[in-house]
Design brief:
The chain folds into two domains: 6-101, RimM (Elongation Factor Tu (Ef-tu), domain 3), CATH 2.40.30.60; 106-204, SH3 type barrels (Roll), CATH 2.30.30. The chain is 6% helix and 42% strand. The protein has helices spanning 33-36, 80-84, 108-111; strands spanning 6-18, 23-28, 42-46, 57-66, 69-74, 90-96, 105-107, 115-118, 121-131, 136-142, 145-150, 158-160, 165-167, 202-204.
């Protein structure tokens, strides 16, 4: 998603229709909604390939707040059916390099190659980042294969770009086989095959 003047920044996810006039409740991924969600703002959409919105963008008419929740009105979305067709879509905006980076947000190219540290020992390195609707995943290359690590503060408490490290506090079984007595319990992650990643996409660590 790289552009000549910057990159793409993920700023929100459309949750569900609100009312009958095309409004959509938004989960915000930005600390500055007043700057990102202004009338006329245009968003690139991350939707499934079979969605009629695939490859299209949305233009914001208005952002309102209802009981503390952000609700957006968009051009071309005029009824509840249209709003429901956009549920779970992720919103991206152009991000110029001069803009200040938001807290707890890193671009893929900053994370890839960082050493993954557990209890002071290196156990692997970040090979790429998967952006999923629910959360981002760090794909960590270890001696035994690749492991999906949820990019949340409870499991990834520290990212130190200057030191080139990512500190992890994983639950038992995330990076190694469980003891036989615990083998029947489901693990939090499973080694996966490598997939292509977009170096320009930012990853937000969930709290």
């Amino acid at each position: 998603m790289a552009g000549t003047s910057g990159t793409q920044l993920r700023v929100g996810r459309l949750l569900k229709a609100h009312g009958l006039k095309g409004a959509i409740k938004i989960e915000l991924y930005t600390d500055d909604p007043d700057r990102r969600f202004t009338p006329g703002a245009e968003f690139s959409l991350q939707v499934p390939g079979d969605s009629p919105w695939h490859g299209k963008s949305l233009t914001l008419r208005e952002l309102r707040w209802y009981n503390g929740h952000a609700v957006g009105f968009f051009e071309g979305v005029d009824d509840r059916t249209g709003a429901e067709g956009l549920a779970k879509a992720i919103l991206w905006v152009s991000h110029v390099e001069e803009e200040a980076q938001e807290d707890d947000a890193w671009y893929d190219h900053q994370l890839i190659g960082l050493a993954v540290i557990r209890e002071g020992e290196k156990i692997g390195e970040v090979s790429h980042v998967d952006h999923l609707p629910a959360q981002d995943l760090l794909i960590v290359k270890t001696g035994g294969g690749e492991v999906m690590v949820p990019f949340v503060a409870a499991i990834v408490p520290e990212v130190d770009l200057a030191a080139g490290t990512v500190t992890v506090t994983p639950p038992p079984g995330l990076f190694e086989e469980l003891p036989e007595a615990e083998a029947a319990a489901p693990t939090a992650a499973t080694p996966v095959d490598a997939v292509d990643s977009d170096d320009a996409a930012p990853a937000d660590r969930d709290e």
